[in-house]
Amino acid sequence: MPSIQIASSPQHVQALGGALADVDTDKLLWSRDLGTERPIGSIAKVMTALVVLQSGGLDRQIRIPKAVLNYVAKYQGESAGLRPGDVLTVRELLEALLLQSACDAAYVLAATYGPGVTAFLAKMNATAAQLGLAHTHFTSPDGLPYPTEFSTYSTPADLLTLGLAAMQAPLFRAIVDQRFYRLPRSRGYHHAYWWNNTNSLIGTYQGAVGIKTGYTDAAKHCLLFEAVRHGTTLLGVVLGSPDTGPSAGAVAAARLLDWGFGLKLTSTG
Question: Is 208 exposed, middle or buried (0-12, 13-18, 19+ CB in 10 A)?
Answer without folding.
Answer: buried
